[in-house]
């Protein structure tokens, strides 16, 4: 079952198996904070209004094949931009492997082809074997004109890109398609961030970069100072 909560109504169609959906949604193409994705039941939403959803499951959802810890269950969506499963961030999870539901943070339905249930990567393990490592970066948005923004020279070769930044707990704090130098120490996603208007806390963050037009993936660390 799907429950949605948009600001205005959106239309949706429910599908029960991957075989009836168009396209190729590989359960192996996962963002770095996702451990596994269901291949059993899917939903499709349509709408441009920021929305939240609640997905329920029962014994027929086969979630026991994905995890033995129901608290790691998350809503995931197939991103139209990056062509992989993205964590839609669980705001609440309740129940056990036989019955329960999970609610999402706010997202734009039209950004995703389909939605299903997945399992988060706990503990967060962003260092994958199929990506390259860039240098570590220092960002100090203090207005002195030096390292005020996260700038990666290599992205000049790939305007069609996706940049994501995670804190040390694996919480995604920034996401930008066609990134140039937008990150200046502030979160732009709807996750729970304390004192959002004051900027992110000083510390070490992990970033991932996908150069979509070149088929390259990079990762590394940045240190945020004030």
From TrEMBL:
<protein>
    <submittedName>
        <fullName>Gliding motility-associated C-terminal domain-containing protein</fullName>
    </submittedName>
</protein>
<dbReference type="Pfam" id="PF13585">
    <property type="entry name" value="CHU_C"/>
</dbReference>
<dbReference type="InterPro" id="IPR026341">
    <property type="entry name" value="T9SS_type_B"/>
</dbReference>
């Amino acid at each position: 079952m799907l429950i949605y909560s948009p600001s205005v109504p959106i239309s949706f169609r429910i599908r029960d198996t991957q075989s009836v959906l168009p396209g190729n949604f590989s359960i192996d193409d996962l963002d770095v904070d996702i451990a596994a994705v269901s291949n059993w039941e899917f939903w499709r939403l349509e709408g441009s209004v920021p929305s939240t959803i609640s997905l329920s499951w029962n014994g027929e959802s086969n979630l026991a094949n994905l995890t033995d810890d129901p608290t790691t269950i998350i809503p995931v969506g197939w991103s139209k931009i990056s062509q992989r499963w993205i964590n839609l961030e669980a705001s609440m999870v309740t129940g056990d492997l036989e019955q329960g539901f999970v609610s999402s943070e706010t997202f734009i339905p039209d950004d995703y082809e389909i939605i299903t249930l997945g399992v988060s990567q706990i503990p967060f393990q962003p260092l994958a074997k199929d990506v390259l490592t860039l240098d570590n970066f220092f960002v100090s948005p203090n207005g002195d004109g030096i390292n005020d923004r996260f700038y990666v020279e290599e992205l000049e070769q790939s305007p069609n890109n996706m940049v994501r930044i995670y804190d040390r707990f694996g919480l995604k704090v920034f996401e930008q398609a066609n990134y140039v130098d937008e990150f200046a120490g502030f979160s732009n996603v709807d996750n729970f961030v304390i004192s959002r208007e004051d900027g992110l806390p000083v510390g070490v963050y992990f970033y991932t970069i996908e150069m979509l037009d070149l088929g390259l993936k990079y990762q590394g660390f940045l240190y945020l100072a004030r």
